[in-house]
Design a protein that fits this description.
Strand content: over 45%
Distance between the termini: 37 Å
Number of helices: 0
Radius of gyration: 13 Å
Shape: globular
Helix content: under 10%
Number of strands: 11
Length: 122
């Protein structure tokens, strides 16, 4: 299984970024996908998850109304649209996958991408 995250960068507060996660070597349509983020010295934090068909989603309260997760099963891609970014959103963002249903717990995910840095300045 391979997950390749991209799309991170540096933006000012109020700006937007779109993260992408390309999956390979897995049966994508059988897998839930999620985004987590991590800052130095802190545990990995759940951001958003999407179920196998794309109709079920979970979004952390801290980003609800600003971030949207989606997936394209034909392209084996997962996206995280991040709007109205704030300095507290600064972190390394990771995509992750697990078979069957979605989860908000990092320990339930089997495979992880390499992470992409998001930096938001005030």
């Amino acid at each position: 299984v391979q997950l390749q995250a991209s799309g991170g960068g540096s933006v000012q507060a109020g700006g937007s970024l779109r993260l992408s996660c390309a999956a390979s070597r897995l049966n994508f349509q059988r897998c839930a996908m999620a985004w987590f983020r991590q800052t130095p010295g802190k545990e990995r934090e759940f951001v958003a998850a999407v179920g196998r068909s794309g109709t079920s989603t979970e979004v952390a309260n801290s980003v609800k109304g600003r971030f949207t997760i989606s997936r394209d099963n034909a392209r084996k891609m997962t996206y995280l649209q991040m709007d109205n970014l704030q300095p507290e959103d600064t972190a390394v963002y990771y995509c992750a996958t697990k078979y069957r249903g979605l989860s908000t717990f990092a320990t339930n995910y089997d495979y992880w991408g390499q992470g992409t840095q998001v930096t938001v300045s005030s």
